[in-house]
Design goal:
Strands 3-2-1-4-5-7-6 form a seven-stranded mixed β-sheet, with helices on both faces. The longest helix is centred in the last third of the chain and has 18 residues. The protein contains eleven helices and seven strands. It has a single domain, classed as 3-Layer(aba) Sandwich (Rossmann fold), CATH 3.40.50. Helix content is 38%, strand content 23%.
Amino acid sequence: MWNPDIYLRFADERGRPFHDLVGRIAAADPREVVDLGCGPGNLTETLVTRWPGARVRGLDSSPEMIEKARTDGGRVGYEVADVRDYVPGPDTDVITTNAVLQWVPGHERLLTDWAAALRPGAWLALQVPGNQDAPAHLALRELCAAPRWADRLGGLDDAVRRVPDATGYARLLRDAGCDVDAWETEYLHQLPADGPEHPVLTWLSGTALRPVRAALDDADWAGFRAELQPALARAYPPYAGIVDFPFRRVFAVARKR
């Protein structure tokens, strides 16, 4: 289950890669723009301003996220849907997918299928976290494999899957008939250390810790977080009240030839 309120605690930091991604899409007057994995819709709503003449749709598999998006939304049409079932329509001129495909095994095939279905001149833009080897994820995997947790969490230690690098996505989308702009960026998120909980733990609670939460009852969830926090504090110590949290992301913007 996704919790929109927890996810939105770092809305500015999570939103910046989306804006950097969309800024590289040069579509002039698209008919339909689809945001796959739209989450709570706060970023999808900006697409209406970018392309005021387009029909904008937001799809997400989480009913909680779609409920939040519909409550706060404007002109966007939101639907509960699995990205694995999505097929571009004949009027789809722009597809965006931001921090979603790392959850989807075999998403490379999805990208190939989407590109094949797009008309010439249409755009497909993606961003995925590329930080699976960051200290936060290493600490999470190590704890999931620890004796106390392995029977319930051993299969969840790599829930956020490894993704290709920029070169991998560029080659994949070129082979699918696209011209591609691909790159990687490491953002330095400067998170205030102003509460009893380490801010990286709060960050992970909205994303990578989601499968852990689903597997544990309330007492064990509290225990797991209590064990993870010291490891995160060692990996990301505060400096003058700020925790510096480097975060690598991978981007690709493709235009169908």
